[in-house]
Amino acid sequence: MPNYVRQSSLDLDEMFGNYIKNECNVAMIRNIRTKERMNSVHHCEDKECSGSPSMRCVSALQFCWCLAPVVDEDKKSPIYGQVVICGQRFQCISPKGCAVHPYLAGFNVDVKDARNGYPATEVEWKVKFEAFKAEHDAALANKAEREELSRKREDMTEHQQRRQLKLQDQAAFHNCRARDYAAGRQDVGHEIGHPPLTIIAGEGRKGLSSRGQDISSAGDGENMGIVAESSGLHIAHRAPD
């Protein structure tokens, strides 16, 4: 059952459920990820409360824990190397937000808006978290692949190593071209340094060597030619002299 806060789309259980489970006096935790606690003399600084911090303060977004995605770098932590939330406590009404991940940098903005009575329908913190995690996982996969190739290369001959590098270059080229097409770019030939080539027939047989292949025009007297462009080949007609 979702536990939405301040009539927004922010689900408290989705935000902090795994961190506050089985925790006593959770409102006194300074960092919900590292479990660092505050001194008991602290009080809620929100103008709606100003009393001793309680779980009600969390439900009312009088304070919150930072939802910015980070990688846990504590080698003693059971979640070392995983993507987690920052978890640092901050006052939602503060002009800055989290000291490390401020509002101006785009973090916790949906929390601030919900606290100020402008709840958004899109849960921004979750979108940022998933995007960060996907990028991190991709980087780890690429690193593991490079390490595996490096180990294999140690057992290869020099010829095999050159072939392996050639295959990697070809794969990188095709990936780059696929990204260009996905971005809506049309003139891929220009992007990779191969401008379109135009050959018009009608003045004798002409031959052109391009990248090790001969491209020849049509025979004498024909009023047509071949136009080679980055998007492919097509026939171009020309009016007779």
Question: What does this molecule look like?
Answer:
With 241 residues, the chain is α+β, with helices and mostly antiparallel strands. 34% of the residues lie in helices and 17% in strands. It has 3 domains: 117 residues, no CATH class; 28 residues; 41 residues, no CATH class. It is elongated. The relative contact order is 0.08. About 20% of the residues have low confidence.
Give me the count of strands. 11
Number of helices: 6
Rounded average pLDDT: 76
Question: What's the helical proportion of residues?
Answer: 25-40%
Beta content: 15-25%
The total domain count is: 3
With strands numbered from the N-terminus, the spatial order across the biggest sheet is 7-10-11
Structural class: alpha+beta
Ends distance: 81 Å
H/E element sequence? HEEHEEEEHHHHEEEEE
Largest sheet: 3 strands, antiparallel
What gyration radius follows from the Cα positions, in whole Å?
31 Å
Stretches where pLDDT is under 50 for at least 5 consecutive residues are: 186-192, 196-237
| Global outline | elongated
